[in-house]
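Worked Example 4.2. Read the sequence first, then its structure tokens.
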Amino acid sequence: ARAAVPVKNPLLNICMDAKHHKHEPGPEGKLHEQCSPWKDNACCTANTSSEAHKDQSNLYNFNWNHCGVMPPKCKRHFIQDTCLYECSPNLGPWIDQVDSSWRRERILHVPLCKEDCEEWWKDCKDALTCKENWHKGWNWTTGTNQCPGGSVCRPFSKVFPRPADLCEKIWSHSYEYSHKRRGSGLCIQMWFDPAQGNPNVVVARYYA
């Protein structure tokens, strides 16, 4: 009898159908700074990875500094979040179909490791923002996002009282706050050391 051919799981090692993603993941030798952990197998190009680090990146014309300058220790988490979103080939189990002008797929309820969410919140709690959901409701008349009329810039800690509020609400539930820890194999890490391999591969396999 012939050996059974393993069926390729359509949820594993794939890139979502969105604005800047490659059709399929592969090595990218020159990924920029914080996106470099994905260089062995990435859904982003080198150009996308360098744009992810700019204050006013061409990726989405999105301005982090809409309430004054975002502190660097906070901004690094948003850069890392962008790198995960653009570069990770391990988000298949959470890809959701959307009908939007700039992408056909998004991620929904990705279980983000407890520490990743808590550090993001801790490093950003004193930064300022005027909105809880950054996906929609901005004033785009200048071509970049500005606070909508009548909104007030307040500390993140007031807009997002708990880490889960930040991780879950800011990108309309792209992430879900997980009580699981890094290394558990049960939650997605935004931050990881590539020398140890990509820990999200086993997580995607578990949820697929």
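Now turn to a second chain, presented in exactly the same format:
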Amino acid sequence: PAPAGLLGDPDPEEAVSDDSSRHGGRVRGFPHERGNWATHVYLPYIAQEEFLELLELLVSRARTYVPSLAAMEEFHLSLSQCVVLRYHWIEPFVRSLRERLAAFHRFFCVADQVKVYTNQNKTRTFIGLEVSAGHFQLLELVSEVDGVLEEFDLPTFYKDPSFHISLAWCVGDLSGRLEGPCLRELQDIVDGFEDSAFLLRIQWEQIRCKSGNKYFSFPLR
């Protein structure tokens, strides 16, 4: 049976297209199957004007090394991998998350170290800001999220994760072009940006779960 309380209803007849040209050449991490919902738990970050100014400087410099680089349109810090939920699992999954995360309070992180990442199958490269302070609280959150994932026999988060906010991306493994001189130049921009110490000290106020086109929020106390 379909769970109650979800925003919107699935369209069982909706046509599915995996045409990568429609989404910037990105390739699915796993094939789409009807009834499977890509699900992700994360901390959302609402970018301020100063952050977008810093982002513009970083992407402009990085494009001198990789012209195809595109700035992210939304920002977050992941607490889970992208996993697959069956539709009828969504409601109990969200309920379990809500119970496990209810006791957590708001906290701060510092995300000020520029780093280059690739996804697992090396089809995309990212520039991100890695967390340099706040690991303990993030690991506590991941431990609870992992507990929910284990209940549903789903993959848990990475061992020894590098917590970060992705800033920009491109198709393919172009990490070799972005590391070295480019990375050092980007770090210099971050270190020299006015008020960067204040700007990149981030207070997290809620956790979010996205499953397909549905969003669920869990406010921190």
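Notes for the reader: Confidence is low (pLDDT under 50) at residues 1-21. The domain at 35-213 is CATH 3.90.1140.10 (Cyclic Phosphodiesterase; Chain: A,).
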